[in-house]
Design goal:
OB fold (Dihydrolipoamide Acetyltransferase, E2P), about 150 residues, elongated, about 20% helix, 2 helices, alpha+beta, two-stranded antiparallel sheet, five-stranded mixed β-barrel
């Protein structure tokens, strides 16, 4: 016998809800019964020296590592890294009243900031070829020890 005051639409909505509940309960029960892995061995993964993950332990013998060879922290700079090389560029812009300008690097084509206090020669003008040492500044590369480039 039908419920009083229940329309066709209400019946359909109720049937859909009941069907969803039933499907959800069946899925939950299927998940419970599907995989019952309780063994710790099933959960272990092995990583070999190359970073490959597998379910079997690696067969390779372990390589002996000398503890003195292990470096913690940043690597030390070699003599070649410390050696400052002079770069060449063209003074593309220079404002004499404000005392700064920009050098266009010949190799990278990047602009490098230069201040008048870092210029070794007083007769450098816009368009001249210059040699300089590039350093890292607050806002980007900065040219230091700027002088006229002579072949």
């Amino acid at each position: 016998m039908g419920r009083s005051g229940e329309t066709y639409n209400k019946k359909e909505v109720r049937k859909k809800k009941e069907k969803k509940k039933k499907v959800k309960a069946e899925k939950r029960e299927a998940r419970k019964n599907k995989d019952k892995k309780t063994s710790m061995d099933d959960m272990i993964a092995y990583v070999d020296e190359n970073g490959v993950i597998s379910s079997t332990p690696p067969d390779q013998e372990k390589e002996e590592v000398d503890e003195n060879d292990i470096e913690i922290g940043t690597p030390k700079q070699s003599a070649e890294d410390k050696r400052d090389t002079l770069k060449q560029g063209r003074l593309s812009y220079f404002n004499e009243s404000k005392g700064y300008g920009f050098i266009k690097d010949l190799e990278t084509r990047n602009s490098v900031f230069v201040h008048i206090n870092d210029m070794l020669d007083d007769d450098i003008v816009e368009g001249n070829m210059v040699s300089y040492k590039a350093e890292k500044g607050k806002r980007g590369p900065v040219a230091k020890q700027v002088k006229l480039y002579k072949d």
